[in-house]
Amino acid sequence: MTLQLLLTASRILTRPGTPAEDGAVLVEGDRILAAGPRAEVAAQAAPDAEKLDFPGATLMPGLFNAHVHLTFDATREMLPNFLASDDAALRAGARERLDRLLRSGVTTVRDLGDRAALGARVRAELDADGVTAPRLLTAGSPLTVPNGHCHFFGGEVADDDAIRTLIDANAAAGADVIKVMASGGQITEGGADMWESQFDVRALRLIVGHAARHGLPVAAHAHGADAIEASVEAGVRTIEHCTWMTGPQRQDRREGVAKRMAAEGIAACSTSSRNWRMLAERMGEDLAKNVYGRLSWLEELGVPLLSGTDAGLPGSVFDDPVGALELYEWLGFGRRRILEIATEDSAAGLGLGDVTGRLAPGLSADVLVVDGDPLKDLSALRDVRLVLARGSRA
Ligand SMILES: [Zn+2]
C-alpha cells in the first residue's frame, strides 16, 4: 500500500483561474487523488496519510519550461564549453541543471536540442537511479542544413533521405519531439541569418509527415517571418522564438499566419529569459515594446503561448522562472494569465493537458507550494516551500 500525502495550505489554485481559500491536495504514488477545499479533500484521506500543512502558502500546479538546452551551461562561454566537453561531463551538467529547474518549481521541461541523445540518456539514468526530477521531453539532434544553425548538435541533413534517417534515429533514441531549425539563428557562425529560411515548405512537410509516422510532433525554431509561415503551412505544433524577422531590426507580423496558428492550436514559445530586462534597457523602451510586443499581439489573436526561456544560453539561467515571467507583467498581461501560460496552457500546447498542468484527480502529482499569493505578487513564486514531481519530493 502506498502511503498517501495530504498537503494543506491557506489557498489553492487548482487552476490559476479558480483560486480558493483553504485548500488541500491528496496524493497517492505519482497521482493526485483529490484537490480542492480542505475539508472535502481531507475527508478522503486515509487515516495513516502523511500530512503537511503550509499556513500562508499557496498550492498550485508545477511550472513549465518548454524550451531549454540542458547541455549548455548558461555562461558566455557556453558554446566552447559544450564543444570541449565529453558526453559524460555534459550528462553530469544536465543532471545538475534539471535539479535547479526542479527546485525553482519547474516540473515539466522540454529540451529542444542536444547531441547524441544525451537528454534521453540522462532521463533513463535518473529513472534507474530513482532520482526525483522534472518530467523531461527531449528532441535529440535538431534537423539543420549542412553547416546550418546549431550543426554542432549533429543534425545536419543534406537531402530527403537524410531527413528521414535522422528522424528515425532520434525517435529510436527516445525523442518526444522532432526539432527543426527552420531559420538561421544567433549562436552559429556563418550560415543563414536569423531571418533567412533553412528549409522550404516542401521539406518541412516531409519532416512533419515523417515525424508523424513515429507519432511525434514537430517544433520549429523560426525567427524569420517566411520560416514561421512555411512551418505553419507544413503543420508543425510549436513555433520557437516566433520573432517575425525580415531583416536586422525589421519584423513583419503576419496576421493571417497568426490567425491560422490560433485556429489550429499551433503554439508560440517566446524563449525569453530573465535577460529581457537587460535587453530592454539596452534597446530602449520603444524598441523593446516593439520586439516583445509580439507576445501581446499573439495573445490578442488567440495564439496559444508556452513558457520557455532557452535556458542554457548566456545568462539564461535554470533557476529563475519568475524573472522570465515578469516580462509578461511588464507587457501588461494579468497575473492569472501569466500563471496559466506557465502551467495549463503550456501543458495543453505540448499535448500534456490530460497529464499535468492542473491540480485535478487522476493527473500527475506535479505540485508546487509557495509562500504568499502569486496572484497578488508573482515574486511569491520565488519562495518555494515544496515541490512534488510525479509525487516525488524534491
Ligand atoms: Zn533554443
UniProtKB/TrEMBL annotation:
GO MF entries: hydrolase activity, acting on carbon-nitrogen (but not peptide) bonds
InterPro entries registered for this protein in UniProt: Amidohydro-rel, Metal-dep_hydrolase_composite, Metal_Hydrolase, Metallo-dep_Hydrolase
Top-level taxon of origin: Bacteria
Pfam families: Amidohydro_1
Alphabetical UniProt keywords: Hydrolase
Amidohydrolase-related domain segment(s): 58-384
Gene3D superfamilies associated with the record: Metal-dependent hydrolases, Urease, subunit C, domain 1
Classification via PANTHER family: ALPHA-D-RIBOSE 1-METHYLPHOSPHONATE 5-TRIPHOSPHATE DIPHOSPHATASE (PTHR43135:SF3)
Protein name as catalogued: Amidohydrolase
Organism: Amycolatopsis orientalis
Taxonomic lineage of the native organism: Bacteria, Bacillati, Actinomycetota, Actinomycetes, Pseudonocardiales
